[in-house]
Write a structure and sequence with these properties.
The protein is an alpha/beta fold and 252 residues long. It has 2 domains: 161 residues, TPP-binding domain (Rossmann fold); 81 residues, SIR2/SIRT2 'Small Domain' (2-Layer Sandwich). The strands form 2 sheets. A 6-stranded parallel sheet has the order 3-2-1-7-8-9, with helices on both faces. The chain has a 3-stranded antiparallel sheet with strand order 5-4-6, with helices on one face. It binds 2'-O-acetyl adenosine-5-diphosphoribose.
């Protein structure tokens, strides 16, 4: 396993190549104190995703599903962006063509200042009327009695992607196009187990990108990655951002 120090080749690519594509998963928010999904303290540990993250679960018991999402909203609201989110936003400031594609719904990339963000799995901070299909931002700390309702009287649901549902069409289109054209891709804090999100790193590899995995644990993608940085996002990303910024400062 490679040490968390980036290779000279990666350092050169960070200085020279763009656009940069950064794919993130729950691990990028772990150091903000938010639980990932898999692993010993994961959200799916001892809980079947089918009970809280499927359209069927919502149809059968919307209150139980909303309890799960209300607790996640509360945890996310209490959390702050960590060094990894901030480093990613700094890379975008230095290289405005950078795109971040996240599976996360917690809003921490936005709060860190990332602008070019594609959310593959929706947002904890948006709701959708199940009848009208309208969707909007909802940052209420207290949702009142669960389940929350639309002014038309119908149920509201969290505007997140559940198992068995398609990804938002536009988001997927943008992400796949970015994966096909980015020469350098960072895959940060994802187990690479959930598709189609995990297809993006493979699309990028097939298109000839140099794809770097940042994760303290090995994943099914580790063997395919061009380079693996075994470390925590909060330590590795600031180092990578300083290499990107080095180039930006040199050309300023
Ligand atoms: P997972 O919980 O599957 O994986 C989190 C990954 O983050 C693991 O590979 C960890 O090793 C890694 N990790 C933990 N701490 C880290 C740190 N400090 N720095 C870097 N990496 C760290 O989360 P995702 O891959 O995001 O979908 O899960 C994908 C999807 O599965 C989620 O979007 C969600 C879930 O079911 C839906 O709800 C539709």
């Amino acid at each position: 396993m490679r040490d968390a120090e980036p290779s000279p080749r990666l350092a050169a690519l960070l200085r020279e190549r763009e656009p940069l594509l950064i794919l993130t998963g729950a691990g990028v928010s772990a150091e903000s104190g938010l639980r990932t999904f898999r692993g010993p303290d994961g959200l799916w540990e001892g809980k079947d995703p089918a009970e809280v993250a499927t359209p069927e679960a919502f149809r059968d018991d919307p209150v139980e599903v909303w309890r799960f999402y209300a607790a996640r909203r509360k945890a996310a609201a209490a959390a702050a962006p960590n060094a990894a989110h901030l480093a990613i936003a700094a890379m975008e400031s230095a290289r405005p063509a950078t795109m971040v594609v996240t599976q996360n719904v917690d809003g921490l990339h936005e709060r860190a200042g990332t602008k070019q963000l594609v959310r593959l799995h929706g947002s904890l901070w948006r709701v959708r009327c199940v009848v009208e299909g309208r969707e909007w931002e909802d940052h209420r700390e207290d949702l009142g009695s669960l389940p929350p309702r639309c002014e038309c009287g119908s149920l509201l649901r969290p505007a997140v992607v559940w198992f068995g549902e398609a990804l938002p069409h536009e988001a997927w289109g943008k992400a796949a196009a970015a994966a096909r054209r980015a020469p350098l891709v960072l895959v940060v804090g994802t187990s690479s187990l959930v598709r189609p999100a995990a297809d993006l790193q493979e699309i990028a590899l097939r298109a000839g990108a140099y794809v770097v995995e940042v994760n303290p644990e090995a994943t099914p993608f580790s063997g395919l990655a061009s380079e693996r940085l075994a470390g925590r996002a909060g330590s590795v990303l600031p180092r990578l951002a300083s290499l990107v910024r080095g180039r930006a400062e040199a050309t300023a």
